[in-house]
Amino acid sequence: MGVEEYSGGVDASSGMLVVTMNDVPGYKVDRVIGEVFGLTVRSRHVGSQIGAGLKSLVGGELKGLSKTLVESRNQAMDRLIEQARTRGANAIIAMRYDVTEAETGAEVCAYGTAVVISPA
């Protein structure tokens, strides 16, 4: 598996600046829109669970589960961006991920503060 299968983040063509910082150097916050989030819940595939169980006997990365988590994070990020765009934002600051283990899978939430910024 190549690095592209384990990468994420915002595509520059999305038109939305997403940062984990509380501010953006060189920009001023003109308006705070508020909290936005994107959420996805993924169930585990029985085959990957069996494979993960066997892999745990010998150790090493659980590549199938890693790939699923990356896909989940990317989907949550896409939903976050769409919510912010719908509410009129051009940036999201203080973005974070939260992952919660559920009995049947995992909940991945991307959240942050939607804002309108302009060059300072």
UniProtKB/TrEMBL annotation:
SUPFAM superfamilies assigned to the protein according to its UniProt record, in alphabetical order: YbjQ-like
Domain of life, per lineage: Bacteria
InterPro entries to which the protein is assigned, alphabetical: UPF0145_dom_sf, UPF0145_YbjQ-like
Family: Belongs to the UPF0145 family.
Protein name: UPF0145 protein Afil01_66650
Provenance organism: Actinorhabdospora filicis
Taxon lineage: Bacteria, Bacillati, Actinomycetota, Actinomycetes, Micromonosporales
